[in-house]
């Protein structure tokens, strides 16, 4: 036995420690929401597009999750009410043959609702109700006639299908050399109609509208001429205006004019 | 007082900012809708004491988010944009009509960077202009509904009927809270009010109309659209309430106007929850005052209190949580449709809500 003090055991390797995580419980926030109502508390990963502004405290985390949960409850209750109302509406009395009549009833109901929302401009209501198409649609048992051809339909198809298109030609006065028009055609109306256009408004705000527009019957070709006066210094750009049937406001065409720089 | 800084500072790193296409598409949607609005407004012409009034708010600009939302939903569902533009104009005209009425009801001072219409022309004429705008929004809506197959036209009017009733109920709730001095309002009641007052008109209705005019064989589920619209609308409204605290010229309304009006926003609801008993009593005394007796000094104190308790940050995080749910619901509603700009725009509107000024 040696008198020597036995050497100490070599010191154990330094214990590796993980850094203490900032969080002390699973992070559950409202950011990921995988499935409807229980989306409020799912995972820590926000969906593409958004991420919380700062690390959130537990209190705020709970606040956010609660708000999303309550949000789902609120919209869920509202939708349930809507479903119940729809079921009541559809119970029994709805038949395909009644649909045009129901359409009129709904239109009248909406008009009444708007009337109740404030004092009424009766003359405007009158003008609206004198729209021949609206009148025909509101009449029981009738179906409204289409105002514009369906996509892909022949605009010159036979009578009774869709309205025929009327050629519209644009002529310019003033700084006419700078102006050009995109081709367009007017939807024809059943009865002689006055055409109206308020103004050609700029595609981007800031430029003054072009207000000098009037219509004449074309003399040397079929259709209608739109005469557009381009004022001096009119800024370059695209200008659009909707041509309507005066009185009813039914929209017949979109006139687009381009002013070169 | 640094609440302005706290809200206005750039947000920390985000995984995705608003895609550039959102602002671009919003501008294009607005430019395409504007002529149809002008055509509808032209029906009134230059009628004295009416024509210039109905044209006033539309001429002041506006981002036309509602029209953009409708057009994107319609295009995502296969509609031809040129054909549905009159409906986009109807949506915006109805929105403008409600702005005129809101400003009267709230006694607002400013709108879109100028004096509110009733301050320029008096309440009777402004009210009449608002009514007229309501009627002007009808014509394109009805004309469109009439040329759709009856079953679709009937649904379009039913959607509009529902929206109008929900909006009126939500507005009544908010005004009733103020008139009757209601204080014990919780988050659920607030969100229900926002759903009705804001979301049905601003987001749910445009989305559902857009889906109705589409041609895809399997359109988005209307209830999914309502959920997306609700969460988007709620985030939008809460952000609007926050912007009101730090309003600058680009916001277009007076700074702190909601506090002066005593609006029961989520900010005030949260403040009541975290305030000390003494602070809560002071807040309740402020809300019990008639509007004319709420002074700028009181509003400044209230802003300082909101700042001291970090309420704006909490509320902002709640709005972001609701926005997360909106993104989830957008994907659930439109995920089965082909990817493209309309869908990217609809999702991109969610972060845009927080970046608008």
What's this model, at a glance?
The complex is a heterodimer of chains A (261) and B (357). Chain A has 261 residues and is of the alpha+beta class. Chain A is 26% helix and 20% strand.
Q: How many helices of chain A? A: 4
Helix content of chain B: over 70%
Oligomer: heterodimer
Number of strands of chain B: 2
Which structural class best describes the helix and strand composition of chain B? mainly alpha
* Main beta sheet of chain A: 5 strands, antiparallel
Report strand % of chain B: under 5%
Describe the strand arrangement of the main beta sheet of chain B, using strand numbers: 1-2
Low-confidence stretches of chain B: 1-15
Let me know the average pLDDT of chain B: 91
Please explain how this structure is put together:
With 261 residues, chain A is of the alpha+beta class. Chain A has 4 helices and 9 strands, in the order ααααβββββββββ. Chain A has helices at 58-90, 99-117, 122-129, 132-138, and strands at residues 165-174, 179-181, 184-187, 195-197, 201-202, 213-217, 224-230, 237-245, 251-259. In chain A, the strands form 2 sheets. In chain A, strands 2, 4, 5, 8 and 9 form a 5-stranded antiparallel sheet that branches. In chain A, strands 3-1-7-6 form a 4-stranded mixed sheet, with no helix packed on it. In chain A, a hairpin with a 6-residue loop joins strand 6 (213-217) and strand 7 (224-230). Chain B is built from 16 helices and 2 strands. Chain B is mainly alpha-helical and 357 residues long. Mean pLDDT of chain B is 91; it is low at 1-15. In chain B, helix 4 (65-76) packs antiparallel against helix 5 (81-106) and helix 10 (222-245) runs parallel beside helix 16 (341-355). In chain B, strands 1-2 form a two-stranded antiparallel sheet. At the A-B interface, helix 1, helix 2, helix 3, helix 4 and strand 8 of A face helix 2, helix 5, helix 7, helix 8 and helix 9 of B.
């Amino acid at each position: 036995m040696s008198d020597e003090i036995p050497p100490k055991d070599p010191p154990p390797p330094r214990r590796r420690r993980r850094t203490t995580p900032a969080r002390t419980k699973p992070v559950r926030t409202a950011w990921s929401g995988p499935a409807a109502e229980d989306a409020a508390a799912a995972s820590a990963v926000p969906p593409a597009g958004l991420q919380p502004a700062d690390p959130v405290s537990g209190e705020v985390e709970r606040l956010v999750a609660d708000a999303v949960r309550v949000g789902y409850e609120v919209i869920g209750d509202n939708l349930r009410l809507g479903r119940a109302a729809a079921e009541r509406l559809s119970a029994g009395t709805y038949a395909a043959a009644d649909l045009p009549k129901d359409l009129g009833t709904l239109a009248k109901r909406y008009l009444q609702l708007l009337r109740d929302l404030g004092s009424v401009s009766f003359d405007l209501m009158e003008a609206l109700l004198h729209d021949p198409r609206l009148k025909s649609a509101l009449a029981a048992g009738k179906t409204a006639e289409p105002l514009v051809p369906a996509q892909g339909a022949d605009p010159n198809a036979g009578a009774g299908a869709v309205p025929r298109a009327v050629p519209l030609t644009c002529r310019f006065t003033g700084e006419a050399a700078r102006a050009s028009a995109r081709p367009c055609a007017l939807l024809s109306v059943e009865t002689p109609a006055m055409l109206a256009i308020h103004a050609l408004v700029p595609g981007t705000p800031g430029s003054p509208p072009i207000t000098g527009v009037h219509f004449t019957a074309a003399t040397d070709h079929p259709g209608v001429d739109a005469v557009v006066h381009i004022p001096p210094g009119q800024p370059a750009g695209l200008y659009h205006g909707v041509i309507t049937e005066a009185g009813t406001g039914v929209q017949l065409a979109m006139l687009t004019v381009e002013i070169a720089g | 007082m640094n609440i302005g800084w706290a809200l206005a500072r750039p947000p920390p790193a985000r995984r995705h900012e608003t895609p550039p296409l959102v602002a671009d598409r919003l501008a294009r949607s607005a430019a395409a809708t504007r002529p149809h609005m002008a055509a509808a407004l032209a029906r009134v012409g230059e009628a004295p004491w009416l024509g210039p009034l109905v044209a006033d708010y539309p001429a002041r600009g506006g981002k036309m988010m509602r029209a953009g939302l409708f057009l994107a939903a319609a295009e995502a569902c296969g509609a031809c944009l040129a054909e549905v533009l009159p409906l986009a104009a109807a949506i915006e005209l109805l929105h403008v009509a409600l702005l005129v009425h809101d400003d009267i009801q709230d006694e607002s001072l400013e709108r879109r960077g100028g004096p509110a219409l009733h301050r320029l022309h008096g309440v009777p004429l402004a009210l009449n202009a608002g009514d007229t705008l309501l009627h002007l929004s009808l014509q394109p809506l009805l004309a469109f509904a009439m040329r759709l197959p009856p079953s679709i036209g009937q649904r379009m009017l039913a959607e509009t009927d529902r929206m109008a009733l929900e909006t009126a109920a939500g507005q009544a709730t908010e005004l009733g809270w103020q008139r009757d001095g209601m204080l014990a309002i919780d988050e659920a009641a607030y969100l229900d009010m926002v759903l009705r007052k804001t979301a049905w008109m601003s987001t749910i209705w445009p989305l559902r109309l857009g889906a109705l005019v589409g041609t895809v064989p399997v359109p988005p589920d209307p209830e999914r659209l309502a959920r997306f619209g609700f969460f988007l609308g709620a985030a939008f409204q809460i952000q609007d309430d926050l912007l009101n605290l730090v309003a600058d010229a680009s916001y277009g309304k007076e700074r702190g106007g909601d506090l002066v009006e005593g609006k029961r926003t989520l900010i005030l609801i949260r403040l009541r929850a975290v305030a000390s008993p003494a602070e809560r009593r002071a807040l309740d005394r402020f809300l019990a005052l008639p509007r004319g007796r709420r002074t700028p000094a009181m509003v400044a104190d209230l802003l300082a209190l909101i700042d001291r308790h970090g309420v704006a940050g909490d509320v902002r995080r709640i709005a972001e949580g609701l926005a997360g749910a909106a993104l989830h619901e957008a994907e659930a509603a439109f995920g089965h449709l082909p990817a493209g700009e309309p869908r990217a725009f609809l999702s991109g509107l969610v972060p845009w809500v927080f970046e608008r000024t």
